[in-house]
Design goal:
Elements lengths: L5 H24 L7 E8 L10 E4 L2 E10 L8 E8 L9 E6 L5 E6 L13 E7 L1 H31 L2 H58 L2 H23 L4 H7 L1 H23 L16
Parallel strand pairs: 1-7, 2-6, 5-7
Antiparallel strand pairs: 1-4, 2-3, 3-4, 5-6
């Protein structure tokens, strides 16, 4: 117990703390110190912000992490990235790697596995890498187009501001508000009208039913009328009228002679004139035709 002095205990606690801190830091970085991993190298022209402990994925599953980055300050060689990949991962010959950055700035490496079942890349060999800009690359491609559009957008915004400052716009908006109010009033009146119609429609339908019933009654009565008998009577009447007309046109009948004999017309005309002269004379000399005397004496 004399060897476990206070200084020794403090040293042991410090060593244990450092070991735990080292293991915790590596665990947070995604490094597994207790599992055997294979070491591969990936060459890049540009690592686009890649750093140690960045994850490595294959088909969306994390299979390793970046251990170290070897940069050639002479710029005669590519940047070599040391990658620790699970020993159970078999990388076929012809596979490649790419660096992918998302909008949040997170960087990762994707292994693009080739379809080669016969040959493989052995641990310690180099994998060819590249950069997949993804959405950020598309945004970079859009920047020149956006820069060209900025002057036009500025001109459009100036035109819009000028248009909005026009008093006619305010008047138009006021008119739109008035029209909207009128439409609201019209809609309310239309709803009232429809409500009135809905209340009156049953009564109108009842009246229509009565009219249809009366029409059916009239139709029934018309169906009972003896049309043939009526037409026969009409034909008989027309025949009688025709015979009467024939008799008028015939000189042998009394009516025909009366209408067609000129001598009878002149005789009747002479008779009428004589009767007219007689009436005139009667009015002028009534005593010639009416004899009245108290003493029975006649006037000559």
């Amino acid at each position: 117990m004399k060897y476990f002095t206070k200084e020794v205990k403090i040293a042991i606690v410090a060593i244990v703390g450092l070991v735990v801190l080292f293991l915790g830091m590596n665990f947070l970085k995604g490094l597994d110190l207790f599992s055997s991993e294979s070491k591969y190298y990936i060459s890049f022209k540009d690592i686009s912000g890649l750093s140690s402990s960045c994850p490595i994925y294959a088909d969306g599953y994390q299979v390793g992490v970046v251990r170290n980055i070897q940069y050639d300050y002479g710029q005669t060689k590519d940047i070599i990235v040391e990658a620790s990949i699970n020993k159970d991962m078999r990388i076929p010959k012809g596979s490649s790697a790419e660096i992918v950055s998302d909008l949040m700035g997170n960087v990762k490496v994707n292994l693009l596995i080739a379809n080669n079942m016969r040959e493989r890349i052995n641990p310690g060999e180099t994998i060819v890498g590249g950069i997949n800009d993804g959405a950020m690359g598309q945004m970079k491609d859009l920047i020149p187009i956006v820069q060209k559009m900025l002057p036009k957008l500025d001109s459009i915004l100036c035109s819009v501001n000028t248009l909005l400052q026009d008093p006619a716009i305010a008047n138009s908006l006021h008119n739109v508000e008035t029209v909207t109010g009128n439409l609201t009033t019209s809609t309310r009146q239309l709803n009232t009208l429809l409500g009135t119609l809905n209340r009156r429609v049953p009564g109108l339908l009842a009246k229509a039913d009565n009219v249809m019933d009366n029409t059916e009654v009239i139709t029934g009565k018309l169906a009972k009328v003896d049309v043939d008998g009526t037409m026969q009577k009409v034909n008989t009447t027309l025949q009688n009228v025709q015979e009467f007309t024939h008799q008028l046109n015939n000189n042998q009948g009394s009516l025909g002679l009366l209408m067609r004999d000129p001598n009878l017309y002149y005789d009747l005309n002479a008779t009428v004139k004589s009767a007219d002269s007689l009436l005139i004379d009667l009015k002028a000399h009534p005593k010639r035709y009416v004899h009245f005397s108290i003493f029975g004496k006649k006037d000559k």
